[in-house]
């Protein structure tokens, strides 16, 4: 079978690999219909994880079950399913509590496991024709419809970025009537903007440097803020002052003590760019902006990744993932902070049902559908965020038709 393999820094290759086999009676084999390329895959692509060449990558995976082990009870060959990128066992303490992002048994090294990812256990990735699914009863989310129907682009986003954006909104305590700023208009940021509406936000801003991504944010109902037009915190403050959502019911003296918005979502992470120069990384740029922008008693939801060890960090502290933060300001403002990997299984069923009911159409952010042979080139373009490469999905219909 064909698979996308990490072949060294900035090099992905499509290679022939042996077919995966069932290794436990609780496993299933999935015939992949669509696998997406994630912003998280770029950390590996850019050599920021220490991943060894040879790994089949890809953690955003959906398809049709090909076969199941003897102990699989609820999933059958022919079922259409999407997989949470986190692999959970379903029986450990953390899985029981719904914290499948912290499964205690699936990775020898630390809590959390995923398909095709550095440091997340021995699981082969799903940017491939087939993938082995451990604990299939627990990890498969069943989907209605047929492969490659109109829902295909919507459902693939249930593997990661839609639940992750939603998790960002939960961590940032987005509720009805809240004002929200999302940093990053990549797939995760766009899904965080959509999720903020789902959770009842009154006003949503979305910050990035890339015009076509900001245009997608606008299509999703967010107010786009381009960092190239000036300090995004000041831009949001200025617009906020003029919005009726802000001025309604303000008492004398209150306005000056509010900083901007109630909820801030970081959908960028440690590869954040400096305000002044998009080519220059400034790992704490978004965190500093978030602390400045959050209202007193506000909340930050951090789903952009901060990761160590980072072979590409600019100094020893950065290589260990240690950064200086304005802690006194965070304390003084009594900000709540939530962060971490998304427990996809906590949200994917509810978000699927919103899609099926026609209430949301997350697949509108998919910019490119490619056959697997074009994956190496798509990694290059997505990594440069060029040519409108916002969300790339690898589809296996063309491959099989050929
Ligand atoms: P992405 O990396 O393409 O999106 C990041 C966006 O941030 C880009 O559009 C970039 O232009 C923008 N950006 C950079 N610096 C900025 C700044 N200072 N201010 C505002 N915007 C800035 O792709 P993505 O798939 O959306 O991933 C975003 C982050 O989410 C990555 O760090 C990824 O690893 C992480 N992620 C986390 C989880 C999780 O479970 N927590 C899951 C999936 C992805
Ligand atoms: Zn992902």
Overview of the structural elements:
- α14 (375-383) links the parallel β14 and β15 (392-395).
- The relative contact order is 0.16.
- The protein has 2 domains: 2-160 and 343-401, Medium-chain alcohol dehydrogenases, catalytic domain (Quinone Oxidoreductase, Chain A, domain 1, Alpha-Beta Complex); 161-339, Rossmann fold (3-Layer(aba) Sandwich).
- It starts with a strand and ends with a helix.
- Strands 3, 4, 5, 6, 7, 14 and 15 form a 7-stranded mixed beta sheet that branches. The chain has a 6-stranded parallel beta sheet with strand order 10-9-8-11-12-13, with helices on both faces.
- The protein contains 15 helices and 15 strands.
- α8 packs parallel to α10.
- 27% of the residues lie in helices and 21% in strands.
- The protein is an alpha/beta fold.
- The structure holds nicotinamide-adenine-dinucleotide (NAD) and zinc ion.
- The site of zinc ion (ZN) has 6 residues, from loops.
- Nicotinamide-adenine-dinucleotide binds next to α1, α5, α6, β9 and α10.
Task: For the structure shown, list the relevant keywords.
21% strand; 27% helix; Rossmann fold; Quinone Oxidoreductase, Chain A, domain 1; binds nicotinamide-adenine-dinucleotide; 6-stranded parallel beta sheet; globular; binds zinc ion; 2 domains; alpha/beta; 402 residues; 7-stranded mixed beta sheet; 15 helices
Radius of gyration from the CA trace?
Answer: 21 Å
Strand proportion, as a percent range, falls in: 15-25%
CATH structural class of the largest domain: Alpha Beta
CATH T-level fold name of the largest domain: Quinone Oxidoreductase, Chain A, domain 1
CATH architecture of the largest domain: Alpha-Beta Complex
Question: What hetero molecules are bound to the protein chains?
Answer: nicotinamide-adenine-dinucleotide, zinc ion
Residue runs with pLDDT of under 50 for 5 or more positions? none
Helix content: 25-40%
Rounded average pLDDT: 96
N- to C-terminal separation?
Answer: 14 Å
> How many structural units, i.e. domains?
2
Total DSSP E strands: 15
> What shape does the CA trace take?
globular
CATH superfamily of the largest domain: Medium-chain alcohol dehydrogenases, catalytic domain
Structural class label: alpha/beta
Total count of helical runs of at least 4 residues? 15
SSE string: EEEHEEHEHEHHEHEHEHHEHEHHEHEHEH
The largest β sheet comes out as: 7 strands, mixed
């Amino acid at each position: 079978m064909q698979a996308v393999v990490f072949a060294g820094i900035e090099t992905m290759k499509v290679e022939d690999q042996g077919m995966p086999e069932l290794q436990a009676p609780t496993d299933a084999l999935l015939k992949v219909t669509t696998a997406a390329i994630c912003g998280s895959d770029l950390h590996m692509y850019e050599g920021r994880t220490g991943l060894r060449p040879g790994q089949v990558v890809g953690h955003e995976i959906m398809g049709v079950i090909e076969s199941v082990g003897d102990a699989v009870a609820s999933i059958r060959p022919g079922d259409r399913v999407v997989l949470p990128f986190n692999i959970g066992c379903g029986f450990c303490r953390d899985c029981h509590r719904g914290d499948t992002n912290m499964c205690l048994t699936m990775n020898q090294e630390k809590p959390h496991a995923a398909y095709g990812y550095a440091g997340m256990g021995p699981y082969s990735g799903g940017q491939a024709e087939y993938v082995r699914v451990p604990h299939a009863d627990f990890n498969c989310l069943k989907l209605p419809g047929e492969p490659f129907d109109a829902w295909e682009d919507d459902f693939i986003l249930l593997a990661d970025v839609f639940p992750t954006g939603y998790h960002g909104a939960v961590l940032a305590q987005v509720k009805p009537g809240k004002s929200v700023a999302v940093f990053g208009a990549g797939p995760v940021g766009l899904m965080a903007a959509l999720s903020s509406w789902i959770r009842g936000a009154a006003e949503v801003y979305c910050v990035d440097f890339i015009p076509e991504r900001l245009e997608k944010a606008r299509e999703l109902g967010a107010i786009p803020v381009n960092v190239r037009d000036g300090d995004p915190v000041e831009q949001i403050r200025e617009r906020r002052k003029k919005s009726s959502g802000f001025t309604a019911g303000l008492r004398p003296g209150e306005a000056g003590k509010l900083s901007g918005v109630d909820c801030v979502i970081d959908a960028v992470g440690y590869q954040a760019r400096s305000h002044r120069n998009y080519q220059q990384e400034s790992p704490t740029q978004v965190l500093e902006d978030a602390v400045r922008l959050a209202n007193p008693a506000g909340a930050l939801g951090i789903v952009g990744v901060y990761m160590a060890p980072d072979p590409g960090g600019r100094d020893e502290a950065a290589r260990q993932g240690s950064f200086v933060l304005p802690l006194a300001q965070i304390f003084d403002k009594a900000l709540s902070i939530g962060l971490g990997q998304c427990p996809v299984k906590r949200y994917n069923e509810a978000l699927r049902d919103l899609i099926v009911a026609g209430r949301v159409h997350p697949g509108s952010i998919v910019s490119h559908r490619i056959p697997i042979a074009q994956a190496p080139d798509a990694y290059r373009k997505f990594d440069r965020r060029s040519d409108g490469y916002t969300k790339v999905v690898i589809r296996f219909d063309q491959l099989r038709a050929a």
